[in-house]
Design a protein that fits this description.
This protein has helices at residues 7-58, 241-245; strands spanning 62-65, 75-78, 89-91, 115-116, 123-131, 137-149, 156-162, 165-170, 184-185, 191-200, 205-214, 229-239. It is α+β, with helices and mostly antiparallel strands. The chain has two domains: 1-58; 61-245. Strands 2, 4, 5, 7, 8, 9 and 11 form a seven-stranded mixed sheet that branches. Strands 3-1-12-6-10 form a five-stranded mixed sheet. The chain starts with 6 loop residues before the first helix and ends with a helix. 22% of the residues are buried.
Length: 246
């Protein structure tokens, strides 16, 4: 005579199987939901990272500004000598990828073209500064290093023309701290130049051209700086009498 199965036992087994299946479905739904949320967060983080990277890449490597409120006297800057559009902030077009060159490769008319006029491997930017006051002023000009990646500053050259007169700046040699040949050393690790100019007449205009490149003849222009980056900002402000005396 065969063994018989208690109907109640079958029902309990069916209930157990149903419960197990329900729990499995529930857990699967939770897992899928969690995985979806994690994936969404990852996508959002990637999008944010991409946006930030794009902004940094497109932010420009050289800007010019005149901070407001530092003096009762007024100066302004413009990309054209007629000051059709006067401003307190200017931005040079960036060079997306810069290979090394040497100074003799720069265009002969590099200081004669207004606004941004970059070459394939150099930044070139011409602008004008005007004294808007009714009497002569003295003012300070600085170029600050905002950020450096991969020691690019050791191979960069910054040539500043003021009213056609050039000064070539470079960081001192890493090996011995001596100036690079035919250059004026950076003022400090964070500053390319810091100059004071006196006696700009009322309504007077000074013309500036700034040229930036990687000097291929610099011993520090090596493969280690590939992918490097350097951002700079030039700043002007009117000097008060006590600042000039100091």
């Amino acid at each position: 005579m065969g063994n018989s199965v208690n109907p109640n036992t079958v029902n309990k087994m069916n209930m157990f199987n149903t419960r197990v299946t329900a729990k499995g479905v529930y857990r699967r739904r939770i897992w899928l939901r969690t995985a979806g949320i994690v994936a969404l967060i990852c996508i959002l983080l990637l999008l944010i990272s991409f946006s930030l990277a794009y902004f940094v890449d497109k932010a420009g490597h050289f800007t010019v500004n005149v901070p407001e409120g530092l003096s009762s006297r007024s100066i302004s800057i413009s990309e054209t000598a007629d000051f059709a559009v006067a401003s307190t902030f200017l931005k040079a077009d960036p060079v997306e990828s810069m290979d090394n060159i040497t100074e003799s490769w720069l265009p002969a008319d590099v200081a004669d073209v207004d606004g941004s006029h970059n070459g394939d491997n150099h930044i070139a930017y011409t602008f004008y500064l005007r004294n808007n006051d009714d009497e002569a002023i003295d003012y300070a000009a600085t170029i600050d290093i905002l950020s450096v990646y991969k020691d690019t500053d050791h191979a960069v050259r910054v040539k500043v023309y003021r009213n056609g007169e050039p000064t070539l700046y470079a960081k001192p040699q890493k090996a011995n701290g001596e100036p690079e040949p035919d250059t004026t050393p950076f003022t400090s690790n964070k500053k390319v130049m810091s100059q004071t100019y006196e006696g700009l007449e009322a309504g007077g205009i000074d013309k500036y051209t700034v040229v930036i490149w990687l000097e291929g003849e610099d011993p520090e222009c090596v493969d280690d700086i590939l992918g490097g980056e350097m951002k700079m900002a030039m700043q002007f402000h009117v000097l008060e009498t006590e600042e000039v005396k100091a």
